[in-house]
Amino acid sequence: MLYLSNQDYIAILNHALLGLPNEACGLIAGKVEADKKYIKKVYMLTNIDESNEHFSMEPKEQLAAVKDMRANNFTLIGNFHSHPESPSRPSEEDKRLAFDSTVDYLILSLENIETPILKAFLIDEGKNVREEQIEIVQ
pLDDT-derived band of residue 138, with 50, 70 and 90 as boundaries? Predict the structure, then answer.
């Protein structure tokens, strides 16, 4: 189970809306206690691909985020990206590029901009996808 603050959810949503028409992306970090993952910090990164169908995170921003995680004793929990025109589920490219089966892949669908949908997924080495529950907390 993932726990995400409402404030961080709004930040991810705003980052995705500002990135339109392209995909937006970033990293999530926090604390892990058994099967509970508490997202404590969200890192908004630049999609250097400037595409509405795929993303690549800016390397210097990624490095700065990892350094900040270490400084704060946070664990990398995963990453997020938006799907401006498609549902909140991993595309074939998302599955192909999912190299770490221990992290969560969050996808925010803006297909219906009035009702954005955020979901989290675990993708194993065989590229099998399992949805993980997210609870947005105050």
Answer: confident
